[in-house]
Amino acid sequence: MTDLPDLSSKVAVITGASRGLGAGVAEAWGARGIQLALCARSSFAAPAGAYAAQVDVASAAAVAEFAQATVERFGRIDLWLNNAGVLEPVGFVHDLGSEAVRQHLAINALGAFHGTQAFVRHLRQREGEGVLLNVSSGAALSGYAGWGPYCMGKAALDRLTECVQLEEAAHGLLAYAVAPGVIDTAMQATIRGCSPEVFPAVAKFHDLKAREAFNSPGYVAHELLRLAYVRRPTGVVQRLEPEA
């Protein structure tokens, strides 16, 4: 995978970096020499040279403080990946409690909003472009029974990304909402553990596991950089192709 420019001068933020896709992207981007600022709700071991912080993305103040600390350490932020997200609660809408849904959206929707806001405010304070990548899902484009909150949050994320691109293009922003395909993370294990009564499409995900039909974090990390610095399509909402 040598079709990328030298990105060793770039500074990237990754939220939800303690495991799964976030950790995989951090490893791959760090190997390319990108300077990393990583955060997650829980404490975690960061790669050497990275700045790591325990941050609840549901808190606007916490995200803003993290962004400021990143700028103080590295001087700027070039690339921001809003990756933090949860799946639960899973269940039919008529069974879900409003507090559980509120907590879900505080992470998946508001958390990405807070990161987006912190990044565009930073861009307005300096010259030059910056790239915002919001991790979306195929669930933003079509509903799944049992995934009401998840589908709602990801659809909101797509629209947020489109809006902020329109608002901030003059300030150097390139924004994409990217559905990375299915990756075999802890979230996938949670999905496969659901009963058909609460998630009728669960058999689809068992079949994906049986065929190991997943995109790898390394592939996704590479394609995100291609999207940000090589391809640069005009459409904001993007879906990655299955890994060959």
Would you summarize the structure shown here?
The protein is α/β, with parallel strands linked by helices and 244 residues long. The protein is built from eight helices and seven strands. Strand 1 (11-15), helix 1 and strand 2 form a beta-alpha-beta unit.
Set out the fold topology.
Blueprint: E1 11-15, H1 20-31, E2 35-40, E3 51-54, H2 60-74, E4 79-82, H3 98-108, H4 110-123, E5 130-135, H5 148-168, E6 173-179, H6 186-192, H7 202-211, H8 217-231, E7 237-239
Parallel strand pairs: 1-2, 1-4, 2-3, 4-5, 5-6, 6-7
Helix pairs in contact: 1-8, 2-4, 3-5, 4-5
Spell out the key features of this protein.
single chain, 244 residues, alpha/beta, Rossmann fold, seven-stranded parallel beta sheet, 8 helices, globular
Q: Specify the CATH class.
A: Alpha Beta
CATH-defined fold name: Rossmann fold
Helix content: 40-55%
What pattern of helices and strands is seen along the backbone?
Answer: EHEEHEHHEHEHHHE
Describe this structure in words.
The protein is α/β, with parallel strands linked by helices and 244 residues long. It has a single domain, classed as Rossmann fold (3-Layer(aba) Sandwich). The protein has 8 helices and 7 strands, in the order βαββαβααβαβαααβ. A 7-stranded parallel β-sheet has the order 3-2-1-4-5-6-7, sandwiched between helices. Strand 1, helix 1 and strand 2 form a beta-alpha-beta unit. Helix 1 crosses helix 8, helix 2 runs parallel beside helix 4 and helix 3 runs parallel beside helix 5. It is globular and about 50 Å long. The relative contact order is 0.15. The mean pLDDT is 97.
